[in-house]
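hey can u check if this looks right to u? its 226 residues, i copy pasted from the old doc so theres a chance i mangled smth
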Amino acid sequence: MQSAKAEPARVLRTPRAAGVAGILFALLLGTALVLVRIAIPVDADSAAHWLADEDHRNALKTALGLVPFAGVFFLWFMGAVRDYVGHGGEDRFFDTLLMGSGLLFAAMLFGLAVGVDGLTGGGGASPPTGEQQSWELGRHLSVSLLGDYAMRMAAVFTVSTTVIGHHLGLFPRWLKWLGAVAALVLMFVISSVPWSELVFPVWVLALSGYVLWASFRRPDRTTAAT
């Protein structure tokens, strides 16, 4: 009798944890991505001009400060989402994809932070003017991690979460279509269209908002059932 009452409380807490963590992650990641895009020049030849601007350097420093918190909230979000959808007998294949792609995305997010930190000379000192090739290597590493690798892992995470939610009937139709579109953009468009990586935090924000909203509609039904 006691375990029957404890289970609904746990079920109610998990969606709210996923919603709160996802919203915080989406806001932090979106802000960090915008700052990185603004601060890193597209043309490597303009490196000296861009990094001589104190505003650009401060933007990079702010982005670096946000990334660790974004990574922590993403891990919290991923764990809460998996717990939310992980008790309905879903396909283990997609469950493995969700966990694997999520962990790889988090690792590449921190790798991106290391690359961006290298652009500022590590600790904020200006890069030596005679080391243009080293600066370009760090820039190329950052852009490649962001566009070619991290966001494609985000696409796999989006697909696996959307498929599991669809199979269990947890997501509305509009959220399924949004997940499909976001995954396609992150997988095939990310390399050619700047700023398209913002699709991922937008999708996380939409998913988290829906999960959080739905969690406040369930207590009445749960209480009535008990």
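The mean pLDDT is 78.
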